[in-house]
Write a structure and sequence with these properties.
Layout lengths: L2 H32 L11 H10 L1 H26 L2 H7 L4 H42 L4 E3 L4 E5 L2 E5 L7 E2 L2 E6 L5 E14 L2 E13 L2 E13 L4 H7 L8 H13 L5 H24 L12 H28 L4 H5 L1 H16 L2
């Protein structure tokens, strides 16, 4: 790699690193503020909230990487443009393709860093943070699970299959125990929704009760279950597909498909993660044309504002297509690539128009 390529790549990487540092500091503050509502519940303290915020930062970094790369690239290109270095490079014979190659080197390094964070740090730290928070808030309960949740609250044991939204879950098994830990009743609900902080609404509930060497069966369209293991605890113990690493998502997809189960949430999370990673390259290429033409003399504040606006648009588009995939049952593969595809198309078009 030539000196000019290293210089361009170094400038872009420095700007992106600076922006990501600022975004991570802001993210830490916002996550910590969001945890204040749980401080004081059980043994969950301010120090626990700070630890939870710090351990969920890698997950926040994954979601903020494309926006941070876009803002940082605009600032880095702005530094080169305002000092007329890009004009000198083009005048000396450096082509658009070669400049794009220097940007590609920066993108490869950033994608490598994003992959390391996503595959090695984000998921384990997020799970550890969730477990520690649950233990602190619900110290009087015991639970365990992977993908679902097994929770014991006194003489009641709950087995939750998975979350479908913020307040709704999949099927639930309910085990009632006697004082000597013998099974008194076993029930299953097809769907579960939160009916309050300490209650659940069980839909299509079937129960078998064991009494005096006899088994009695009962079926209810709905049952209200009162338990201290409310939605807050279950949301802490049921894994969200968007927080899983790529290799975990791939394994989940293979398992679900081989057993004929619905894999749409995991399929969308898998392709959305890949598209978000490719979005780093699209963001850097998109910033390159802004070093030429009338925008090369734009101020730092103008480029920062533009980067923030475009980053927010990309972020909300990603959330919008995620909702569309789950609510309207659209093709998750195509939807996951919509924001990144539009950004890449705009980048290629703008680069092609640069003279």
């Amino acid at each position: 790699m030539s000196i000019l390529n290293r210089y361009v790549a170094g400038t872009l990487l420095s700007a992106v690193a600076l922006v990501m540092t600022v975004l991570l500091m802001l993210g830490l503050i916002f996550i910590f503020i969001g945890e204040q509502g749980d401080v004081g519940v059980g043994h969950y303290s301010m120090l626990d909230a700070l630890g939870y915020s710090a351990m969920t930062l890698p997950q926040f970094a994954l979601e903020a990487f494309p926006a941070g790369a876009l803002i940082g690239a605009l600032l880095g290109i702005g530094v080169l443009a305002r000092s007329h270095e890009l004009i000198v490079m083009r005048s000396s014979g450096m082509s658009k393709l070669r400049l794009s190659g220097a940007v590609l080197v920066s993108a490869i390094i950033l994608i490598g860093a994003e992959m390391l964070i996503g595959e090695l740090l984000a998921q384990p730290l997020a799970q550890l943070a969730t477990e520690q928070k649950a233990f602190a808030k619900y110290a009087s309960m015991s639970f365990a699970g992977a993908g679902g949740a097994w929770i014991r609250d006194g003489n009641t044991i709950l087995d939750v299959e998975g979350a479908s939204s913020a307040g709704e879950f999949g099927g639930m098994l309910v085990f009632e125990l006697s004082a000597d830990d013998r099974v008194v009743a076993v029930g299953r609900a097809a769907h579960v929704s939160a009916a309050g902080p300490n209650s659940w609404l069980l839909s299509d509930y079937q129960e078998s009760r064991f009494e005096h060497d006899q088994v009695s069966a009962e079926r209810l369209s709905q049952r209200l279950l009162q338990t201290a293991a409310g939605a807050g605890l279950l949301r802490l113990t049921v894994a969200n597909p968007s927080q899983l690493a790529l290799h975990t998502l791939y394994s989940a997809l293979i398992y679900l498909r081989s057993n004929g189960l619905d894999s749409t949430p995991y399929q969308f999370a898998f392709w959305a993660r890949i598209a978000r990673t490719a979005g780093i390259l699209a963001a850097l290429l998109f910033a390159l044309p802004f070093g030429f033409g009338a925008l090369r003399s734009a101020t730092l504040s103008a480029r920062t504002t533009l980067g923030l606006a475009l980053g927010l648009v990309y972020f909300f588009m990603q959330r919008l297509v995620e909702s569309g995939a789950q609510v309207f049952h659209l093709d998750p593969l195509l939807l996951a690539w919509v924001p990144t595809g539009l950004l890449m198309l705009a980048a290629v078009t703008l680069i092609w128009r640069v003279r």
